[in-house]
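Reading a protein record of the kind used here takes only a little practice. The integers have meaning only within a learned vocabulary of local backbone shapes. With that in mind, consider the following protein and its fold in token form:
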Amino acid sequence: MQPAATRHAGKPSIASVANSGSRLGARGSHQGSHRRRHGILRDSSLSSKLDADVIECPVCGYAGLKSKPYEQWPPSPDIELGPPYEEVLGRPSYEICPQCGFEFGNDDNPGTAPPVSFEEYRREWEARGSPWFSEPPGDAT
């Protein structure tokens, strides 16, 4: 695994995409309506079909995470969230989303760099065309 500074090298700065307002690109698009609560992308078409064993990425909506991003997941709707998320949500999983590449507990709390929120990371990922971070599963293309 590459350190956060190396893994994110070459990405546009947060300031350059802050006002982009872009939606998920063609490769990362989802059907159904999207809504965000605490910056967490929710796809209503997925939420109505998925059981409790399916965990969505709060950044891109990928419905295939192997573990909850944080100990206290999902967050209560009345909690004010901001990075580092582990301060409110408990121990992170350190799992890396295979679609957007967000690493829970590292990208939001990198230690030597400013923390990145779900919203900021999503804007940067969308500005790059929403590429898959790792090889997509056979049924996700």
